[in-house]
Design goal:
There is one protein chain. By secondary structure, the protein is mainly α. The chain has helices at about 5-20, 20-35, 45-75. Helix 1 crosses helix 3 (about 45-75) and helix 2 runs antiparallel to helix 3.
């Protein structure tokens, strides 16, 4: 089953947003709020959860940068031409 353009657009946008450095700030604010409001529940499970979120954001950021580099090289190697232009 092919992915609909609407879904592809949403997933692409979500990928770009999670690759943004502000995502790390959001996770840090979440951890700070967790420590302020319920420090008793911040055990090793919480640390593992935060580590998983952080690693996911790091991997997403790296993949996004790689994708951007590939697109830049592709655009440079094969510039788009308008039909009929010489």
């Amino acid at each position: 089953m092919a992915m609909r353009p609407f879904h592809r657009t949403i997933l692409t946008r979500m990928g770009v947003l999670t690759a943004h450095p502000a995502s790390f700030v959001i996770v840090a604010v979440y951890v700070a709020a967790w420590l302020i409001f319920d420090p008793g529940s911040f055990d090793w499970h919480a640390i593992a959860t935060i580590a998983t979120w952080s690693m996911t954001l790091i991997i997403q950021r790296a993949e996004h940068r790689d994708t951007q580099a590939i697109h830049a090289k592709t655009r440079r190697a094969a510039p788009c031409r308008r039909p009929g232009a010489q």
